[in-house]
Design a protein that fits this description.
single chain, 445 residues, alpha/beta, Alpha-D-Glucose-1,6-Bisphosphate, Chain A, domain 3, 4 domains, 6-stranded mixed beta sheet, 5-stranded mixed beta sheet, globular
Length: 445
């Protein structure tokens, strides 16, 4: 589970690993003891649909209760539903058991602050020190925490989204929840907004039989076909924990995540008469172009939603997000939210009278190629990148800029891989830059 984030255990987004092998019940138990020791009080917990999630959630809960803290169990719920619950209640912290977009065999554990925001990296570092020291706050037999169930927790999240969005038109929406946690929320959100819903893979199934949890274009042929066959206004797909949403327009064409980020960022800047938008250094330049053209300011961060959220709070940003379908609407929750993303895209279409294809067509066009290669020695890669490209932007890995494009090489914080992002004005140039990145990694490793 060496992930390249806070240290030996924590990555850029909590702790992840292959369930019952790298991420065991014993580790989960001690992570529960860790959060219970650091944030005494009432701690909410939820999980995605993975078949290992109940095992790990039970272990985390036992660890929390052993410290004297109570546990409020929301059951299966999207990550943003757990975060919203923590923000709106008197919980001292939250824990979500999920590996998000990672393959079926993985699972993960992520800590949430009392304001609903994921733990920042320095908080993960503190958590890791407590975990490694094993100096937990252990309660006496008559002071151990209790377990409570809140069956209304998910409904609280659904209602909050529905109440914040107004639609005059009735939309037809095709939804691919990928058998993940969004199966229990997004169809209900859309129905409550008056939409006709055509569901695909909306039955919870932790084996993810239809597709991998990551909603990449190559796995969404069924959704594209459903949009056309159902005569839908849009199509949407989620990852395993539904904190991300990717879209298909009314013609059945996939809309890149960077374009969707730019569409919403542009709208928020125009609506607010300016403002700051925060996004990672891996995002397409189309986002910067759209924000600046609308009169806004863009701020770049290292990759990872916790750091994006932290900067958004510090700079009082009006909007933020990542170019992977993770959009952040701070008036609701400073966290990626797939359910709110669907609702807000429909609201924008409703307010402008434009189809999704028309909104996407307003965004400057770049060609971006994303991929990954195996990388277990991340320290060696980072040192090599600094040596080979001393003039690059090293805020997160190395972003090497050219006159007609850029390439970003960075080790993943959640998997034993290095990610490559390459963008150019033309597809051929983007591919050239991607190959440049591949060769650089091979040379270093």
């Amino acid at each position: 589970m060496r992930a390249g984030g806070a240290g030996e255990l924590f990555g850029t987004n909590g702790v992840r690993g292959i369930a019952n092998s790298e991420l065991t019940a014993e580790i989960a138990l001690n992570l529960g003891r860790t959060i219970g020791s650091l944030r005494p009080g009432k701690i909410a917990i939820a999980c995605d649909t993975r078949i290992s999630s109940s095992m790990l959630k039970s272990a985390v809960s036992a660890g929390i209760m052993s410290t004297g803290s109570d546990v409020v169990d929301l059951g299966i719920a999207p990550t943003p539903a757990l975060q919203y619950y923590v923000k709106e209640t008197d919980c001292s912290a939250g824990v979500i058991v999920t590996a998000s977009h990672n393959p079926r065999e993985y699972n993960g554990i992520k800590f949430v602050q009392d304001n609903g925001v994921e733990f920042y990296r320095e908080m993960d570092e503190e958590s890791e020190r407590v975990y490694m020291s094993k100096k937990f706050r252990i309660a006496n037999w008559d002071e151990v925490g209790q377990l409570y169930m809140d069956c209304y927790g998910l409904r609280r999240y659904i209602d909050a989204i529905v109440e914040s969005v107004e639609l005059d038109k009735k939309y037809r929406v095709a939804v691919d929840c990928g058998n993940g946690a969004g199966s229990l929320s997004t169809p209900e959100i859309l129905k409550s907004l008056g939409c006709d819903v055509y569901g695909i893979n909306c039955n919870p199934d932790g084996r993810f039989p239809a597709r991998n949890p990551e909603p990449v274009e190559e796995s969404l042929d069924l959704l594209k076909k459903a949009v056309v066959d159902f005569n839908a206004d849009i199509g949407v797909a989620h990852d395993g924990d539904a904190d991300r949403a990717v879209f298909v327009d009314e013609k059945g064409r996939f809309v890149s995540e960077d374009v969707m980020l730019a569409v919403m960022a542009k709208h928020y800047v125009e609506e607010n008469g300016g403002g700051v938008v925060v996004t990672p250094v891996s995002s397409s330049k189309c986002v910067e172009d759209a924000v600046k053209a609308a009169g806004g300011e863009i701020l770049y961060t290292p990759v990872g939603s916790p750091v994006v959220a932290k900067v958004m709070i510090e700079k009082n940003a009006i909007f933020g997000g990542e170019g992977n379908g993770g959009l952040i609407f701070p008036e609701h929750l400073v966290a990626r939210d797939g359910g709110m993303s669907v609702a807000k895209v429909l609201e924008l279409m409703d307010a402008t009278g434009k189809k999704l294809s028309e909104l996407a067509a307003e965004i400057p066009r770049y060609c971006i190629v994303k991929g990954k290669v195996g990388c277990r020695d991340k320290k060696k890669l980072l040192e090599g990148l600094r040596r080979e490209f001393p003039d690059a932007n090293h805020i997160d890995g190395a972003r090497i800029d050219f006159s007609d494009g850029w390439v970003l090489i960075r080790p993943s914080g959640t998997e034993p891989i290095a990610r490559i992002y390459a963008e150019g004005r033309t597809e051929s140039r983007a591919k050239e830059l991607y190959e440049f990145g591949e060769k650089a990694i091979k040379k270093i490793l």
